[in-house]
UniProtKB/TrEMBL annotation:
It comes from Arabidopsis suecica (Swedish thale-cress). This is Thioredoxin domain. The keyword Transport applies. Signal peptide: none annotated. Residues 43-159 form the Thioredoxin domain. It holds the Pfam family Thioredoxin. Keywords: Disulfide bond, Electron transport, Redox-active center, Transport. The keyword Electron transport applies. It comes from the Eukaryota.
Length: 159
């Protein structure tokens, strides 16, 4: 005989999954452009974020130059389409790019053709990796998914 708590647990678990799915799909809009074999973010029309997807080594070098010369506070977000933890942290990165519109967030897909040299320049060995630049210097790095630390670093560096 099942106890009343086993039914409650099952309902609670199913409700959580449904709620989290609805929350993610309504708050954060991802587009899977499988025809182009890449994932990108979609933004609402009034979006204030400064989020740039780098697709070539020339774009990466330009962004890195701006970060290193101190003219632009920036975050480099190294990711991959196949990376589960990257998909978990992506909504948080979008949220923070809206909260800090003066900080440019650069998304770098490590599997994008022509970016392998770029990854070596910043010694990226795992994804997700986030590197934070301010005043021309790399101030912090986060490897893996640590939402609390991510929010804390953004607050400390860019508030």
């Amino acid at each position: 005989m099942k106890s009343q708590w086993s039914n409650f647990h099952q309902i609670g678990r199913n409700s959580f999954l449904a709620a989290s799915t609805v929350y993610v799909s309504s708050e954060f809009n991802f587009v899977n452009t499988s025809l182009l074999n890449r994932r990108s973010f979609c933004f609402a029309e009034g979006d204030r974020s400064s989020f740039v997807v780098l697709k070539s080594e020339a774009e990466f070098n330009s962004a890195l130059s701006k970060a290193r010369d101190g003219s632009l506070p920036s975050v480099f977000y190294f990711t991959a389409a196949w990376c589960g933890p990257c998909r978990l942290i992506s909504p948080v990165i979008l949220e923070l790019s809206n909260k800090y519109p003066d900080v440019t967030t650069y998304k770098v897909d490590i599997d994008e053709g022509g970016l392998s040299n770029a990854i070596g320049k910043l010694n990226v060995s795992a994804v997700p990796t986030l590197q934070f630049f301010k005043g021309g210097v790399k101030k912090a790095e986060i490897v893996g998914v640590d939402v609390v630390r991510l929010k804390s670093v953004m607050e400390q560096l860019y508030k």
